[in-house]
């Protein structure tokens, strides 16, 4: 029997609030790699607290496909019209500079991504393979018809990347560092798998923090109080000040996700004599295995008001690692870049993005650049894996 033919109804939405939250989240739950960052609660919080809005250079243009037979959401993607390249973690500043030097405008551009979030996962949510192909084609057609220089899809799944490259988009690869839980019973059990020098260094780092009188408390979900959010936001802003930059997120955003998606949040607070001095916030998603294993923890935000040697490693890595082991989470994604994470058991992992440029000459130049870059990425990852921190 031939499959029934029909055309989806296409929507271009100026706000995530324009799509039904329950339908969006139900579609997300059907994806192979859902993450908490694509939840309607997360994206709508970015919009409602004015972190990702036109005034900050993130104009929502969410693309939706509706099945006309059922009236239900069949596919959707978080798309933004961007006036800059901040908060993306797949760097195209050199491309923008080349456009400028040739008297061409690189901005605005179209970006399919979760703002400020370098996490691999579903970007083109689709109910089935047909809907995925149609959504990928719709994104490319949208870019071709819009007055933009380019379209970029950041950190999609392998399946989504394949659907986009089949339509002529170019693929780019990058490297992150992820920790894998090999069924560890304790932090010491994990340390025992490392080379002696790496194991000794980690123990020394943890000892320095203890000897400085620092203690830690973890707060999960609804246990995170408003005073904790205020303190964490203060730490987060301090980190940006130290880097002479402006924070992407605000206290209202953190409070909002604390209210709407607490089951995905864990905060670490470092204290000396009962006074908080540093904090980190991680996002996690439990696995669906019957024995409670699986799931992923995402290292995201950190900051300190006082300097203590090795405090960053303890607050942002070792405390979350202990949480992963206790909760039987399978993966700890350490975020963008960071070779220093390898000494702490994080291994290189290849990430992907896809790109379309309207200008033929620039598209050809970028294609050659990406071919060379990919070769360098593969050689880099091979070299890193040869020097992994684990016992032979």
From TrEMBL:
The record ties this protein, via Pfam families, to: FemAB_like (PF04339)
> Which spans are transmembrane here?
none
Q: Which domain of life is it from?
A: Bacteria
Gene3D superfamilies recorded for this chain? Answer: 3.40.630.30
Q: By what name is this protein known?
A: N-acetyltransferase
